[in-house]
Specification:
2 domains, 15 helices, single chain, Rossmann fold, 53% helix, alpha/beta, 381 residues
């Protein structure tokens, strides 16, 4: 079974849309796929699949000690795709206890399928990060704006702290060293990971090799979603360089996805976009991503790509972004000529884009002020 957790540093970057369309496309390739909504407390993944009135799911499993998780799988209308809903109306599951989380993870491991796709909640909470770390090959979905890329970076930084916490045993020299940092009131977010690891190696040479082995196996993958223009694809490479330099890990780039105006219509129709418009720009991007996932040797212990392969992946993604943009513009022109898009639709699209640009300007001004303040306080990114 190949486990693919899908996460994002923040909401609104299209993570759930990506998860559901990946699951459907893999299932179309005759793979048995189970899609799990692990956005506990705010799960709505069933909507993207056109499912309604699901009253049971992960929440039901957690409050029913004798429940077998496989009994909660819903057979969807898509062949070979099964779905496990989120909280199922059970209140208070946003913060799981350790025992609940342990039982849930163990149960997920018993599901028989080719691909287990876990759609996680947005943000960097402990539960979300722990579910992401079930696999070393999880996917980060982000968008080409500062807030999205910054929170993606911080998500991975928090993941490394969780790896440290889980690989250095309690009362070990490494764990005591980390506790000492916290007691000194030093924010871990202000620490360079590279410097921290050097200090950890000195503080606990006995347990450091185990941590180093786990960290080397941690190779998350990236999808840059919601592009508006080809030049935005280069932001994925910049994010990767930052992560390599400051976190000491590398990321494979699975591909880019342009913002698709048909997505809202697809959602309203109860169809995923890969079926609503299979020849569309977004559907083609999803198909390319699935091909890359399929070509990777299946299983969580698959050998990782080397540096040259990863570098080539980022260059290929930028080339694909240019091709997709041309196709997207041609599609808009065709739809307009055929009357499928009216003058009003074009005007509304421009208004929406203008609104988004204004929001981004406000967001950038806010982040700029925060960065300036942080630099004065000695914050280390």
């Amino acid at each position: 079974m190949t486990i693919i957790p899908v996460a994002s540093g923040k909401g609104g970057v299209g993570k759930s849309t990506v998860s559901s369309n990946l699951a459907i496309t893999l299932a179309k390739k005759r793979k048995r796929v189970v899609l799990v909504d692990l956005d506990l407390g705010a799960g709505n993944l069933h909507i993207t699949l056109g499912l309604k009135n699901i009253s049971y799911g992960v929440g039901t499993f957690l409050v029913t000690p004798s429940m077998d998780i496989t009994d909660l799988l819903v057979r969807t209308e898509y062949h070979d795709l099964f779905f496990l809903a989120g909280d199922g109306g059970v209140v208070g599951l946003a913060n799981l206890t350790f025992q609940q989380k342990k039982r849930l993870i163990e149960a997920l491991m018993t599901i028989q399928c080719d691909y287990l796709i876990l759609d996680l909640g947005a943000g960097s909470g402990f539960n979300t990060v722990d579910f992401f770390l079930i696999s070393g090959r999880g996917i980060i979905v982000t968008a080409p704006n500062m807030a999205a890329t910054l929170t993606a970076y911080l998500f991975l930084k928090n993941a490394i702290f969780r790896i440290i916490a889980s690989t250095f045993p309690k009362e070990s020299k490494g764990a005591l060293f980390m506790d000492h940092l916290k007691r000194d009131g030093l924010s871990l977010q202000k620490i360079y990971i590279s410097k921290l690891l050097e200090q950890l190696k000195i503080a606990d040479p006995e347990n450091f090799p185990r941590f180093e082995k786990v960290l080397k196996a941690f190779r998350p993958r990236l999808i840059m979603n919601m592009l508006d223009e080809p030049s935005s694809a280069s932001k994925a490479e910049r994010l990767r360089r930052t992560i390599v330099q400051y976190l000491g890990i590398d990321m494979e780039h699975l591909g880019v996805i342009f913002r698709d105006e048909t997505q809202a219509r697809a959602l309203a129709s109860g169809l995923p976009v890969v079926l609503y418009k299979p020849q569309g720009v977004m559907a083609q991007a999803i198909n390319r991503i699935v091909e890359r996932i399929s070509r990777t040797q299946e299983g969580n212990m698959a050998p990782f790509l080397n540096a040259d392969d990863i570098e080539a992946g980022y260059k290929l993604a930028e080339a694909e972004a240019s091709e997709d943009y041309i196709e997207k513009m041609e599609s808009v022109e065709t739809l307009f000529k055929e009357g499928a898009i009216s003058d009003g639709d074009l005007i509304e699209t421009l208004r929406t884009q203008q609104y988004e640009l204004n929001q981004l300007r406000k967001e950038n001004r806010f982040l700029k002020s925060k960065i300036v303040k942080a630099s004065k306080d000695g914050y280390q990114f």
